[in-house]
UniProtKB/TrEMBL annotation:
Alphabetically ordered keywords of this record: ATP-binding, Kinase, Magnesium, Metal-binding, Nucleotide-binding, Transferase
Origin superkingdom: Bacteria
Catalytic activity of the protein: pyridoxal + ATP = pyridoxal 5'-phosphate + ADP + H(+)
Coiled coil: none
EC identifiers of the protein: 2.7.1.35
The keyword Magnesium appears for this protein: yes
Protein's organism: Paenibacillus odorifer
One of the record's GO molecular function terms: kinase activity
Broad enzyme group: transferase
Protein known as: pyridoxal kinase
Keyword Repeat attributed: no
Pfam families, A to Z: Phos_pyr_kin
InterPro entries (alphabetical): HMP/HMP-P_kinase_dom, PM/HMP-P_kinase-1, Ribokinase-like
Family per record: Belongs to the ThiD family.
Lineage: Bacteria, Bacillati, Bacillota, Bacilli, Bacillales
């Protein structure tokens, strides 16, 4: 039997299946890896109240027990974090990474639910910046998150994205991907990759209709899968861009509020 490639997500649950640990585990499977998960939060969405999100963090001690279970088999080939929910959970993630000498760490600094525009927990955002970015092989903020982490606020141009990436790199992350996606003006979905020395701009034509619920989680999980399979960071990011674009193209309308990506899209198109 070939050696099993192991991946881990420390993230929240999205019962609609598009984002969170559901997106991560589906993506890990598409990359041919065995996925572990430590659940940090449960998110519900209310169709009777405009798809309003409710977020329920899990006790940090239970998150720690899940990680103890997972790391009983040693470090994984690559891991990611998503929605963490509280400062205590951020600290649990930090401790697990350090104690297990975990490498190939992708930090997706989730600060909001899609459709929301305020940081869920400002203290958690600061803890991610201070405790997890210095451990990150790659950090994958969207425009809002990059504006918060860099201190620049609202980002609206490619040059804004590059400057945010530079400032976030100074916080300790080895590599930074600022995701412009459909939020940046124009007809291209643009992401900026910065390795501390050079910028790479990845762009594809925007897809309409944009069934993109879960695109951010899926992108970070795809980078994780790429790293686990031995790709360089640049190669993993490039493939993840193609993977998530295919997932959006094959997405569907779940209801009047949301259209999730389809995580098997890359495989189906090939």
């Amino acid at each position: 039997m070939t050696q099993i490639i192991k991946t881990l997500t420390i993230a929240g649950s999205d019962s609609s299946g598009g984002a969170g640990i559901q997106a991560d585990l589906k993506t890990f499977e598409e990359y041919g890896t065995y996925g572990f998960s430590a659940l940090t939060t449960i998110v519900t969405m209310d169709p009777d109240n405009g798809w309003h999100h409710n977020v329920y963090p899990i006790d940090a001690s239970i998150v720690a027990e899940q990680l103890k279970t997972i790391f009983a088999g040693g470090p994984v080939n690559a891991m990611k974090t998503g929605m963490l929910g509280s400062v205590e959970i951020v600290r649990v993630a930090e401790q697990a990474i350090k104690e297990n000498l975990q490498t190939n760490v992708v930090i997706d600094p989730v600060m909001v639910c899609k459709g929301e525009d305020e940081v869920l927990n400002p203290d958690s955002a600061e803890a991610i910046r201070d405790l997890l970015l210095p451990l990150a092989t790659v950090v994958t903020p969207n425009l809002f998150e990059a504006g918060v982490l860099s201190g620049l606020g609202k980002l609206s141009t490619l040059e804004d994205m590059k400057e945010a990436a530079r400032l976030i790199h100074k916080l300790g992350a080895c590599n930074v991907v600022v995701k412009g996606g459909k939020a940046l003006g124009g007809d291209q979905a643009i992401d900026v990759f910065f390795d501390g020395a050079e910028y790479t701009v990845f762009q594809t034509a925007k897809i309409e209709p944009a069934h993109n619920h879960g695109a951010g989680c899926t992108f970070a999980a795809a980078i994780t899968g790429g790293l686990a399979n031995g790709l360089s960071v640049h190669e993993a990011v490039a493939k993840a861009k193609d993977f998530v674009s295919a997932a959006i193209r094959n997405g569907f309308a779940f209801n009047e509020y949301v259209g999730p990506v389809f995580h098997g899209g890359y495989r189906l198109e090939r």
